[in-house]
Amino acid sequence: MSSVRLATYNIHGGVGCDGHFVPRRIADVLAELQADVIALQEVESRRTGFDMLGFLAHATGLHPIAGPTLLDAQGDYGNGLLTRHPPLAVRRLDLSWPRREPRGAIDAELRVDSAALRIVATHLGLRPAERRAQVRALLAAFEQDPVMPTVLMGDLNEWLLAGRPLRWLHRHFEKAPAPASFPSRWPIFALDRIWTKPRTLLQQVAIHATPLARVASDHLPVVATLRLDADAAPV
Fold first, then answer.
1. DSSP states of 24-63 as a string?
2. Which helix or strand (DSSP H or E) is residue 126 part of?
3. Residues 6+ apart with CB under 8 A from 154
4. Taking the mean position of all CA atoms in its chain, how far away is CA 228?
5. Largest CB tally within 10 Å, which of 8, 47, 72, 180?
6. CA dihedral 227, 149, 138, 15 (to 10 degrees)
7. Residue 85: its pLDDT value, please?
8. Alpha-carbon distance 80 to 92, whole Å?
């Protein structure tokens, strides 16, 4: 059995709750997490000209996988994935909704010891109809490889516990712990979530609520521990 520590973290472009852009704080929070795989949302280089994903990859020593959803001459914005485990394959899913901010997901197959693990990292939209369409697209993508152990994690922007997106995801993955992660100083909403299939992979889920994490971004990181059977999905 292999143990894998996962995290998902909306870094708010590196701007903390105090309104200051301090990339070093985000890197220090990631160091606190000690995670093997980290899904990042709101990775920003357009407004600042600062290569946030490159900086965080260098600071952590993890391999970066970019998943930008907005690109222009000044830079990009979107999702990122940092991984200690080598990626075997990477694709990017377009989850955009007409006349709304472009959205997407990173779909990566990783090698963990002698096993394969599929990680899908995403940041869904703000409107209910938008999220419903995006979850349907994700579920269709999962059906393309129903055998491989799979993780979905990211900022789902879904606070309606009885809403269809969460009900559909619970039906596919089974329910998982969902501690409140937003806003970071007084978390009320479980916007940031981690699911696994099979559900038995998921051993523990918790928020990372250190003093630094409470100020570095408007979201708290959510951290999970997986136990992966090396014989279940050989590479």
1. HHHHHHHHHHT-SEEEEEEEE-TTT---HHHHHHHHHTPE
2. none
3. 8, 39, 41, 79, 105, 120, 121, 122, 123, 124, 192, 193
4. 19
5. 8
6. 30
7. 94
8. 11
Could you tell me the two tokens for 103?
């959205």
Count of positions (residues) in the chain: 235
**Closest to 97 (Cα-Cα) out of 129, 145, 54, 55:** 129
**Are 52 and 14 a contacting pair, CB within 8 Å?**
yes
pLDDT digits (tens, 9 = 90+) for 136-179: 999 999 988 767 899 999 999 998 877 899 999 999 999 999 99
Of residues 143 and 134, more confidence is placed in: 134
In CATH, what number is assigned to the domain containing residue 150? Answer: 3.60.10.10
Angle at 205 between CA 121 and CA 171, to 5 degrees: 65
Phi, psi of 102 (to 5 degrees): -60, 140
Within a domain: residue 31? yes
Strands 37-44 and 2-10, bridge-based pairing: parallel
- Residue 85's domain spans which residues? 2-228
d(CA 224, CA 207): 9
Number of domains in the chain: 1
Nearest to 221 by CA among 131, 153, 159: 153
Is residue 6 within 8 Å of 223, Cβ to Cβ? yes
